[in-house]
Specification:
Layout (H helix, E strand, L loop, with lengths): L1 H5 L5 H6 L1 E7 L2 E7 L12 E5 L2 E3 L2 H11 L11 E7 L4 E2 L10 E2 L2 H27 L21
Helix pairs in contact: 3-4
Length: 155
């Protein structure tokens, strides 16, 4: 289980609230875990990216995760995440960095867009599920106002 493995290196508080992401399409499969928007911090080292099971760092993927969350958290915050990108080997060049820590995508927009959309869809689904399960939309307001005692004055 990814959450139990991740809890060995990331704060357990974060892991318990992390949201699973999964998306497949256009030759790219995105999966992983993204921190809950309430766990945003100014600085974090707990961001991991894997392309075809190879650990790498890619600023474009990190920014895509942030963009997918941008509607749900303040601008300058970051969250922990683990993103797995599976893509055809012919669509990625792993020989960019001597230690293989960076890759070059043949079509980076496709990958970045897929990551952003996967994150956004998962967060929206999670937050709408929380809202619908915690809210009864058929209830009456709990506070009623009596307007008969309001006096208006001309200033």
């Amino acid at each position: 289980d990814l959450k139990s493995r991740l809890s060995q290196i990331v704060k357990k508080d974060y892991v318990s609230r992390m949201i699973e992401i999964k998306s497949e399409g256009a030759g790219v499969t995105i999966s992983g875990l993204v921190g809950h928007p309430t766990d945003g911090v100014v600085k974090t080292n707990e961001q991991y990216i894997f392309v075809n099971k190879r650990p790498i760092w890619d600023n474009g993927i990190a920014k895509s995760v942030h963009m997918g969350l941008s509607r749900f958290m303040p601008q300058q915050t970051k969250i922990p995440f683990v993103i797995f990108v599976d893509i055809e080997n012919s669509m990625v060049d792993v020989n960019v960095h001597p230690r293989k820590e960076e890759v070059r995508f043949i079509n980076p927009y496709r990958v970045y867009s897929a990551v952003e959309q996967a994150v956004m869809a998962s967060i929206q689904a999670q937050t709408s599920n929380q809202y619908s399960s915690n809210t009864n939309l058929n209830t009456q307001p709990s506070v009623m106002f009596d307007r008969s005692n309001i006096k208006y004055t001309n200033s």
